[in-house]
Each structure stands twice: as structure tokens, then as C-alpha cells.
Write the C-alpha cells for this entry.
Amino acid sequence: MPHLSLEHVSVQYDGQPQPAVTNASVSVQSGEFVVLVGRSGCGKTTLLNTAAGLIAPTGGRVAVDGMPVTAPGADRAMVFQNDALFPWLSARENVGFALKLRGVPLKERDAVAERLLALVKLDGFGSKSVWELSGGMRQRVGLARALAAEPAFLLMDEPLGALDALTRERMQTLLLDLWAANDLGVLMVTHGIDEALLLATRVVVLAPGPGRIVHQIDANFGRRYAAGETVPAIKGDPAFALARAELEDWIFEGEAA
Amino acid sequence: MTLTAQTERSITAAASGSSDRSNARIATASPLTTTRVVSAFTILVFFLAWSVSAHFKLVSPVFLPSPQAVLWKFYSVATTGFVDATLWQHLSASLFRVFAALLFALLVAIPVGIAIGISAIGRGIFDPILEFLRPIPPLAYLPLVIIWFGIGESSKILVIAIAMLAPIAISTASGVRGASVERINAARALGATRVQVVRYVILPSATPSILTGLRIALGTGWTTLVAAELVAATRGLGFMIQSAAQFLVTDVVIMGIFVIAIIAFILEIGIRRVERLLVPWSGRE
């Protein structure tokens, strides 16, 4: 079973007085949904980018199945807040991008892209240009593009951060559906506490100055959704409110009220 | 008459728009229309003033021929020619030089721009060369190019191409540097190699900027044309203007200037079309 691990990772940017992240250990296995939360400047994004191989840790290491990670790879596809789609390509071509990099012929690429677009409920939008799509649609194209690489892990940096509340809720359930159906290991950064709890199998709380992991809690609300429970029912569960309060305590601990 | 009426209407519209800001924002078309109408009016006034001063011989016709004379010259040079070539032959000689130079400049300057944009070493190598070339007027290096490459066609093309290098390379480099880090990272996380990142992400990202550089370069090319055709040319718009000036055939000089301006204008429109075709996404993100 694929296993992504960050082991005692520290990242010190040049010219910064203190490290962005110190001694952080996180592990993600297939079927796990790990969410990083914390205040601004706590190093969530740095940690995610380190897992992606975009940033080399100055201490500790990142490994997939025990093999050290030194560069980005298609086994760890990424989704960004500002979708980072390629506007010179159509939605379909964006989704097929990973396959194009591997030299897969156009026809095959398009077939895969159409299937994935249907999976994110964008059937029939394949030939649209990126700028013709709404924010939520673009984010779904970004998801489909990441899935096309057939990654073992999905690394998402505030993927829903730029969306309006309604779209955001629908995207949350879509993420859960995709995660459950594809046996992915997910590592995601978010600002939303509810979102973190609803999606995660484990929530990792980071604190700034220097960025470090201060708390982790296991959650099963996402699994309950995958098992058929509705979102309002889950959010109405007292356990959800309790877990939420616990998270808030840890996130805002040490911050002047 | 209709023109003045339109102007008044647009001005009234603009005035009422500016008194109410929200209104002005909704009616965004009217300031543009106003500008266009005023522009058309300016041109009209210019030709009117020219006609009047020529008609009453405020300036000697040797120095300022009438618009009609210039228009007539346009016809006569187009049909019977001037200094052994028709207007079309002069024009095509010049167009050939400008476009050959553009092709050469693109082939050299785009790779150079990419090198400057993506690598510190590339930047170290090419930046000083470009900064050296950029401010030198074509007339200054023309003699050297002739000493080195003779008085043939290649020298003329080279003079124009040198002037085009800097704008294209600099725009390309800025486009390359402006490529979104997130897009580059997304491609890398999808398995793109360094070369694939350049080809599939950086180059397309830089295309709008490259086209801007191309547009500036074409403008530069036209301004350099006259210098390039100073020596040993037998055809070309620049050559035609200079020959006419030597014989004080002022109407041909003015006609030549207008032809250059009109062609430059047409090319400008053409490039905008190309931009809309190649990079319809530019500015819509």
C-alpha cells in the first residue's frame, strides 16, 4: 500500500530568521485523508510543497514507500487554490496533460479526459476554454487533471479556498466521493475548520513561529459520509461540534484573543 | 455634418456619464466612441488645414504640395513608377526586407529571451550584449554592417534585424519570467521534465509577451527601413523617399511617408488579429 511520509522535516528559507517548519512528521497512506490546518504562517503550504518535492527539506526527509523524494512526480499530483489550469488548452486538453507528457496518443488521451470530466460532473464541457468556466468548474477540471496522472496521492493546497460557500459545499462532497472511489491518499491544506473535520480521517494542527505540528486528531466524519450518511446529519452530530471545539482550541492557542 | 452631430451626442453622453459614476461604468462604450469620433475629427481638421494652406499657397508648393497632388502622385507612382520602379515594387522590396529581418530576429531573439528568462547563466551571457545593442541607433552601426557584409540585400536585412533583436528578446524574457509558478509546479507534479515545462508551460505562457515584442519589433523595423535603404538600394520605400528628396519631389516624399504609415497601421491591425487568434485567453484570467 503506497505510503507517503514526512519524517522530522524542517525547512529553513534563506534569509528568514526562523524556520518555516521544524521537525514535522506526517504520514499519509492510501485511503487516508490528512488535512493540515493552522493560522497563517504556520508552514502548512511549505509542508505540502515539501511532500510534493517542490521544496527540498533542510532537515529530515520525505519518502514514498521508503524511497526518498527529491523531485515532484506524477505519483503525487497537485491541486492549487488558484486552479493553475493552462488557459491556452481546452478543459479536455488540460485534463489530458499528464498523458501528453507520457506520449499517450491524442485519441486515447481524449477518451480518458472525457471519462474523468464525467467523473467530476463536467460532461460536455471538454471543448470549453478555461476562461469560459466558473471557479467551481475550473477547480473540478484541476481535480480531473490531477486524477489523470493516476496518482497514489493527491496534494491539495486550499483547493476550495477561492470558491463561494455553496460551490464549496458541493465540492467537499465531490472530493469525498473521488477519494473514496479511487483509494487515494490525500494531503490537503485548508483554512476551514468545518471543512477539515468533514473531509479528514486525520486533522493535523500546525502553529506558527516557528511552524510546527502541535496536535493531531483522528476523525471519521468523511468515512461516515462515504458510508451513506448525509452532511447535515454529520454536522449535526454533537461529536462534530466537540471535535470542532477541540480543533479551535489548538489552532488559536497562544494567540491573543 | 453627421460627424459633428455624432460628436455632440457622444460628448453629451460622456458628460452626463461622468456626472454619475455608476452610469459611466455601465455605459463603457461611450468614452471609446467619443475618442474615435474625436480622432476622426482631428484627422479631418489636419487635412483641412493642409488643403487650405496649400490652396492659398501659404507655403510654397515645392515644400508643401496639396493633398490632391500627393494623392495624384500616389496614383501615378502606382501605375507608372518613380526611379525605375512602381510603388508596388518599392513596397514589396521593403516588405520583404522587414519580414526577412523579422524572421531572422525571431529565430535568434526568442531562444535568447528564453535563455535569459530561465537561466542565470543565459542572463549573464546575453543581458550585456542586448543592453549594448539596444540603445545604438541603426545609422550608427550601418557603416560597420556594410564594411562587414557588403552593400547587398543581406546587409539591409541585417540592419533591420539587429534593431528588432532587443525588443523581441526582452519581451520574451519578461514573458518567460512572468510564467505562473503554480502552473509550472502543477506541470512538474504531473510528471513534466524540465524541457517539457519549458515547451508546454513556459513558452505558451510567454506567447502574449512574445507577440507584444513582435509588434514593437515591427514598428522598430519600419523606422529602421529608411536607414537600411540609404546605401546602394535600387528599390524600397525608404530609397524612394530619399531619391525624391534629392530631386525636391516633395509630393513623392509625403506620399512615401503616408504609405509607410498606412502599411504600419495595417500590420498593427494584422498582429492584433493574430493575437486574438493565438492567445484568446490573454487578459481574461
